[in-house]
Amino acid sequence: MYLPALLFVFGLSVGSFLNVISLRYSPERNLLATANHPSRSRCLSCGHELSWLELIPIFSFLIQRGRCRQCQVPLAWQYPLVELASGFIFLLPIYLQNPLIPTALFLIQSAVWISVFLIFLLIWTIDFRLLLIPDGLILALTALGLLLIGVTATSGQFGEWQGSFIGNFAALFGFRSNVWINHGLAAVAGALAIGIIILITRGRGMGMGDLKLAVPLGLLFGWPDIIFVLAFSFLIGAIISLALLAFKKSTMKDMVPFGPFLVMGSLTVFFFGKVILENYFNFFGFK
């Protein structure tokens, strides 16, 4: 009963740390240097050095009514949103529970996906602010993808039901039963798809960061899941971009980061991939 609450509170604290990294990060300094930077947290508007009371996740934002205590400038909503998201990420093991999976494999998978989702938060916030995805985050995701493949291959727990977020629908798209071939193919396919779009649009639609991100996403999700990760990313990106244009929040000349859309596409497949396909095939009368 108490473990989920402890995990959530710990996740809030991790989210606060992620906020520090994402807001302090600059292309001139790598992520490790950013994380180890010794300076105290300050208000980004007036430079006021924050006390411990102003650094409590969620509570400080609420008690200060979303404003700096010194200059009263509104604080970014990124602070509580990232903290809450991180808190819920640490509850992932509850969602991933499966009595058919050995305990050791379950613990490793939970640790990997928690780490992946935390990196997704950093990608989202940094790409949104700076229009770039740090190579360090790409490398970390790649390492996690290879770890997940290796552990899955060793356990023998791989098949259409266990190895895909779309369940047995994976067989319709040429599911490969060898985990290394399956996920390797997905990494290549993801990179090729993004690369072709970059060539066609001459870099106006996407950047090299998106191309590099497609590789670890392929390693993590495998084939054919990567197809749906990209498809949902494009669909969500198109809907949001059209909405921004309709409400005159952006113009055709504005640069829009695609990293957050790749993250949203990944989350859609992770949580709802199988359900969406089930409803899709049922709607068209396929059982």
From TrEMBL:
One of its GO terms (cellular component) is plasma membrane. It is a multi-pass membrane protein. It comes from the Bacteria. InterPro entries: Prepilin_IV_endopep_pep, Prepilin_pept_A24_N, Prepilin_peptidase/N-MTase. Residues 9-93 form the Prepilin peptidase A24 N-terminal domain. Belongs to the peptidase A24 family. This is Prepilin peptidase. It comes from Candidatus Harrisonbacteria bacterium RIFCSPLOWO2_02_FULL_45_10c.
